[in-house]
Amino acid sequence: MVIIIGSGPIGLATAIELKRKGIESLILERGCLVNSIYNYPVNMTFFSTSDRLEIGDIPFISHGPKPTRKEALEYYRRAAEHYELDIKLYEEVTAVDGSDDNFTVTTTKGSYSCSKIVLATGFYGQENRMNVPGEDLPKVLHYYDEPHRYAWQNVLVVGGGNSAVDAALETYRCGAHVSIVVKYPELKPSVKYWVKPDIENRIREGSVTGYFNSEVVEIREDEVDIRTPEGDVTIENDFVLAMTGYHPHFGLMKKLGIALTDDEKKMPVFNEETLETNRKGLYVAGVVCGGMDTSRLFIENTRVHAQHIAGDIEKKLNG
Ligand SMILES: Cc1cc2nc3c(=O)[nH]c(=O)nc-3n(C[C@H](O)[C@H](O)[C@H](O)COP(=O)(O)OP(=O)(O)OC[C@H]3O[C@@H](n4cnc5c(N)ncnc54)[C@H](O)[C@@H]3O)c2cc1C
């Protein structure tokens, strides 16, 4: 029996590949099915085409060229149903004891024995904080949902990636007065190519105020201080959407005995071919493998982990 921690696309793909080899698995998920995708912005569209998000050879047909969050939720639920995967939801893994072929996995609800473990916990549950005064005010959000509640409000978006750009454009189009603070001289090169001209033109014409090479210094109930190359400025503010990225749960990985590289990437140490970590019998899969470097790995290029892991486990279980 293999325990897979996390029911994201890659956790599901791994369970499917194991099932195809006749190996039993159980997925333990702390939230709902594909919890990260569930928590994406409501109107989010993937940058990948649907065929690149497919798992288990099940066709993913979307209405447009790029699937929506809603379509992805339905697709992954149907894939899990089709393969009759064994999944326990709302059950968080908190500890792993024992060793290869004889692990005990402890959750918030109980404990399970298994021979191998696959950690497929992603990164979306832990936000990168700005570490500035006022960050804990309720008006500061690290997860953007949908635009309506920001209508006619002074909204400051922090960040220069896709999440920041989507939040800035959506809230602007819903009547918010939007400013965007970007740490670097320009937006990230990874911003969706069909969206980039839109935000750049809105900034150029002044509909959205852009502060580049700038950082938030302090957030107060009605204002935010921003450090810009021209000096500090204070702007009126009702909401801060801090789209500053996310990172894997390093605390859990350390607790599970997974070594991390000691550079700024903090990548888990694993065998590139098998995905087995330094803790024998414990594998990593999906975007958790990238450590802090979260913009390099996606569903697209980590789906293949499922086959590598299932192949290695099959080899080991069958001697
Ligand atoms: C806004 C956004 C848009 C994206 N768009 C694309 C795209 O277009 N194309 C693409 O390829 N990628 C995209 N990505 C990246 C990729 O989709 C996600 O990171 C993807 O969900 C990664 O899959 P995963 O299975 O590795 O991890 P996740 O989907 O993050 O799944 C991890 C799961 O583990 C669970 N979990 C965590 N800790 C525990 C625990 N202790 N116990 C039990 N369960 C736990 C979580 O609740 C979660 O359900 C996007 C990411 C974001 C944030």
Can you walk through the features of this model?
By secondary structure, the protein is α/β, with parallel strands linked by helices. The protein folds into 2 domains: 2-126 and 246-317, FAD/NAD(P)-binding domain (3-Layer(bba) Sandwich), CATH 3.50.50; 129-242, FAD/NAD(P)-binding domain. Helices cover 23% and strands 22% of the residues. It has helices at 9-20, 35-38, 69-82, 162-173, 196-204, 250-255, 299-302, 305-317, and strands spanning 2-5, 25-28, 87-88, 93-99, 102-107, 111-114, 116-119, 140-141, 154-158, 177-181, 209-211, 215-219, 223-228, 231-236, 239-242, 282-284. The strands form 4 sheets. The chain has a 5-stranded parallel β-sheet with strand order 3-2-1-7-16, covered by helices on one side. α1 packs parallel to α8 (305-317). The chain is elongated, with a radius of gyration of 21 Å. Flavin-adenine dinucleotide is lined by residues 5-11, 28-31, 35-37, 40, 44, 46-48, 92-93, 120-122, 124-125, 163, 249, 252, 286-287, 298-300, 302.
Shape: elongated
Count the beta strands.
Answer: 16
Question: What portion of residues belong to β-strands?
Answer: 15-25%
- Look up the CATH topology of the largest domain: FAD/NAD(P)-binding domain
How far is the first residue's CA from the last residue's CA? 15 Å
Supply the helix-strand structural class. alpha/beta
Please tell me the overall pLDDT: 97
Question: Can you tell me the CATH superfamily of the largest domain?
Answer: FAD/NAD(P)-binding domain
CATH architecture of the largest domain: 3-Layer(bba) Sandwich
* Largest sheet entry: 5 strands, parallel
**What is the domain tally?**
2
Order of helices and strands: EHEHHEEEEEEEHEHEEEEEHEHH
State the CATH class of the largest domain: Alpha Beta
List each distinct ligand once: flavin-adenine dinucleotide
Low-pLDDT sequence parts? none
Strand order of the largest sheet: 3-2-1-7-16
GO molecular function: flavin adenine dinucleotide binding; monooxygenase activity
InterPro entries: Auxin_biosynth/cation_transpt, Bdr, FAD/NAD-bd_sf
Keywords: Oxidoreductase
Organism: Rhodohalobacter mucosus
